[in-house]
Design goal:
The protein is mainly α. It folds into two domains: 2-39 and 66-152, no CATH class; 218-428. Helices cover 56% and strands 0% of the residues. The protein has 22 helices and no strands. The protein has helices spanning 2-20, 57-64, 70-73, 77-86, 95-101, 122-126, 132-135, 143-148, 157-168, 178-182, 192-198, 207-212, 218-242, 256-259, 270-273, 286-298, 302-313, 318-340, 344-363, 370-386, 390-403, 412-428. The chain is globular, with a radius of gyration of 23 Å. The protein starts with a helix and ends with a helix. The structure holds heme C (4 copies). One heme C binds next to helix 3, helix 5, helix 6, helix 9 and helix 11.
């Protein structure tokens, strides 16, 4: 009986592991982009009629998608400079760079046509094709079956968020650390819905798609992006701040702009202070600010508010930090559960109330940190879109994008003023 329990328990663990395993850790052989690119498969120059998928995915990816250039980037003078400063021999062969700029799976998982120089290729997102390469073209074989054969569920917003964020924010296996940034790597900024649209689409959500797959709306995609980014940040905080014995914690977890600006440029104010005196290093908490807004329009947000205030205060008390992180993770689970239960009408109501919250808080100056402002602009854009009001505010939104276009020229007073203007117009409507 006991043995059986252990077997069953292990099996359950395996199942859950399999369900969340990212392509880079999937233990399947990755066959290489060339295996997907034949003209009868995904390499057709024009979209094909009569097929469930466009079949020109390879052409879109290779001609228009930045991911196909991710490895080439490692051969650039900028990368050589970064590698040089970090004491790496060559960016294009350094694991820390390849982990995000290619499909860096173990050598024994690299199939015959596999090349690291393909960059972020099909299997970096869709999973090692070893077992689904044959099954995934059979109409009789269900999507679930393909997924159990290793196809990653890119349509599911939670899985997709984890996938994109693994490279665009970092996870326990890989991170663009402050050392890497200090050597010249660009700061990473990400929002799931916006970046999902910026990546040239190689799929269309048509009738056939809807039959088999979850079709994300902007609101749910955005919320999952925020929930997963917050979860990833909490995991990194736990790992780099609690399980860390060096004098300085990993600085990329803090707000870059709280350290990097001219001393004569006095930026501190009540909102930025998060309840602290001037001179405190602030967390990189743009996603937490969005989480707070989401909570305020979906569940009772008092607990989360308290936990977020606690985490900022707990930064030099490791045991308190751990408890607070656990608390926020529970709050996130709670938000997720209530989101899953919402129907479209309820989602529109939540999205509208979220937008109201952002605009009201923003007009009062709550997003005066650049990292929060950047998230706010993307959120406003997609929320107006989701509630079908974007056309009326298009020019105002475009101005918001201009204000956050360059982090070093960001003017927080101008930003709050523009949010106030939009809020005033929105309230009048
Ligand atoms: C294996 C790592 C990895 C994964 C997974 C990944 N990306 Fe990327 N992404 C990159 C890298 C690296 C670049 C930069 C490529 C370059 O220019 O060299 C990039 C660039 C981009 C860009 C272009 C950004 C710009 O400034 O032009 C978009 C948009 C993007 N990714 C969206 C996504 C989305 C959406 C997902 C999830 C569906 C995703 N990425 C998953 C690594 C990844
Ligand atoms: C945690 C993942 C991650 C790691 C580790 C990482 N990068 Fe990146 N890198 C990215 C992403 C994502 C982008 C695209 C950022 C964007 O445009 O939003 C990027 C962008 C870049 C760019 C700018 C590309 C452009 O088109 O402007 C360079 C150069 C670069 N990386 C080099 C490196 C080098 C060299 C290393 C190793 C020392 C490295 N990266 C490690 C994720 C990573
Ligand atoms: C950065 C991540 C990423 C990369 C790289 C990528 N895809 Fe995708 N792909 C997605 C996402 C996200 C979707 C949409 C969700 C879904 O349909 O599962 C998608 C959808 C698809 C679909 C489904 C189309 C449909 O109508 O059902 C196919 C087929 C596909 N990709 C093939 C490819 C091929 C072939 C490559 C390489 C040439 C590739 N993808 C590269 C993320 C990626
Ligand atoms: C706690 C304060 C702190 C935070 C937060 C911080 N940095 Fe730094 N950063 C430093 C210090 C200290 C240096 C070293 C400065 C020097 O060498 O003159 C540095 C150096 C750098 C450099 C190299 C500058 C040079 O002169 O060569 C870059 C680029 C950089 N940081 C980017 C970032 C980014 C991007 C973030 C946010 C993800 C960030 N930093 C967050 C303190 C910080």
């Amino acid at each position: 009986m006991r043995i059986l329990c252990i077997i069953v328990a292990n099996f359950a663990v395996l199942l859950t592991l399999n369900a969340t395993e990212l392509p880079q850790q999937d233990e399947k052989v990755h066959l290489g982009v060339a295996s997907c690119a034949a003209s009868m498969c995904h390499g057709s120059v024009i979209p094909r009629d009569g097929s469930d998928v466009l079949q020109n995915e390879y052409i879109i990816w290779s001609r228009a998608d930045a991911h196909s250039q991710a490895f080439q980037t490692l051969l650039s003078p900028e990368s050589a400079e970064i590698a040089n400063k970090l004491g790496l021999e060559n960016a294009a062969s350094a694991g820390v760079c390849l982990d995000c700029h290619s499909d860096n799976v173990k050598t024994e998982q690299q199939g015959e046509k596999f090349q690291l120089s393909d960059g972020v290729g099909c299997e970096s997102c869709h999973g090692g094709a070893e077992e689904y390469i044959r099954s995934h073209t059979h109409a009789a074989i269900s999507r679930d079956e393909n997924i159990s054969n290793g196809l990653f569920p890119t349509d599911k917003p939670k899985a997709r968020a984890k996938l994109c964020l693994s490279c665009h924010l970092g996870n326990k296996n890989k991170q663009a650390t402050h050392d890497i940034m200090g050597a010249g790597h660009p700061r990473l900024a990400f929002e799931l819905d916006t970046f999902g649209i910026l990546q040239p689409l190689h799929y269309v959500v048509d009738e056939d798609y809807l039959k088999q797959k979850w079709s994300g709306d902007n609101y749910v995609t955005w919320v999952y992006g925020q929930l997963e980014a917050s979860r990833a940040t909490l995991t990194l905080l736990e790992e780099k701040l609690i399980d860390n014995s060096s004098i300085f914690p990993e600085l990329s977890l803090f707000d870059c702009h709280s350290c990097h600006h001219n001393m004569s440029d006095l930026k501190w104010n009540e909102n930025k202070g998060q309840g602290f005196k001037p001179g405190t290093v602030r967390l990189n908490d743009g996603n937490f600010k969005m989480l707070m807004i989401i909570a305020a329009s979906t569940v009772d947000s008092d607990k989360l508010h308290q936990h977020l205030a606690d985490i900022r205060k707990a930064l030099n008390d490791k045991s308190k930090l751990k408890i607070t992180i656990t608390g926020i993770l529970e709050d996130i689970d709670f938000i997720e559960t209530s989101l899953v239960q919402q129907n479209l009408v309820q989602k529109k109501v939540s999205a509208t109330s979220t937008l109201n919250n952002i605009l009201q808080e923003g007009a009062k100056g709550a997003f005066s940190d650049y990292i929060a402002a950047e998230q706010v602009v993307m959120a406003i854009d997609l929320l107006f879109e989701f509630i079908d009001e974007k056309a009326t505010f298009a020019a105002d939104i475009s101005l918001l994008f201009d204000i956050v276009a360059d982090d070093e020229k960001f003017d927080d007073a101008l930003f709050s003023k523009q949010l106030k203007k939009i809020n005033d117009r929105w309230v009048k409507q």
